[in-house]
Write a structure and sequence with these properties.
Elements lengths: L30 H9 L4 H11 L4 H5 L7 H10 L20
Amino acid sequence: MPIALLGCKEEQPPAPPPGVYIPSVKAGESVFGYLARTRGGFDLPLYRQLIGAANEYKEGDEAAGLAAADATSRANARLLLRPELTVPLPEGPDPLGRRA
């Protein structure tokens, strides 16, 4: 017969702070590498959030769900968007179907 321990609860990790939460990145990881690791491939909403999280805080970004959750998340977003890790977009039609 199992024994129940009264008053003992399993510790739950704290919830992440509100906003775009990027707790850590791997050394040399690019934004596309991060997306592949965390989402399995390109994720447009998260890509937009990463760009917004890299910017200085603005209330409008917070209202749009683009503000970094904390200073660590902002610093990590900036690491992912370093110029040496980005690649130029390929020539050809816009993948979102927009016209110039």
